[in-house]
Amino acid sequence: MNDYHRILVATDDSEHCRAVLQRARALLEDNDADVSLLQVLNHVPATVPSDIVPPEGMDKTTWMELTTRERLTRLAEQNQLGDAEVMVVSGSPREEIVRVAKDRKADLIVLGTRERHGASRLRPSITDSVVHHAPCDVLAVHTTCDIDKGGDYSSLG
After folding, report:
1. Of 139, 98, 131, whose CA–CA distance to 4 is shortest?
2. What domains, with CATH codes, occur in the chain?
3. Across 47-52, average pLDDT
4. Which of 44, 72, 126, 132 shows the greatest Cβ crowding within 10 Å of its Cβ?
5. What values do phi and psi take at 126, rounded to 5?
6. Which helix (H) or strand (E) holds 40?
């Protein structure tokens, strides 16, 4: 196995990201590496739901980036990745994950993948795109979703 020094973990807000974070933590046990957590906000809604209102004077994008950064920081601490750099960017996950990996000179990208169904199988997944364009190794962690129990397909992949 390669020695990894800079690991980029691309994650999202889904419950399935925990499997990705656990794998990243296991990698850190075998490698003396710096880890960065990345979430790409690929859609900033034009309207914020009425039960969620940004503080007065703060635009929606800034507010979403701030709250996402706070959630990632908590996830890092909960998964014993407290020293991880936390990054939130806006754009296409396919492009931004690869761009950040290049900018950070990452040795490894860790991200989740899951089974796809229906029309989503007709277009390349985020994982496929990252694998084909990444400047480094990519570890795709299989995440599961039980749609019969109310799960969704919000995990990267």
Report:
1. 139
2. 6-149 (3.40.50.620)
3. 52
4. 72
5. -60, -45
6. strand 34-41
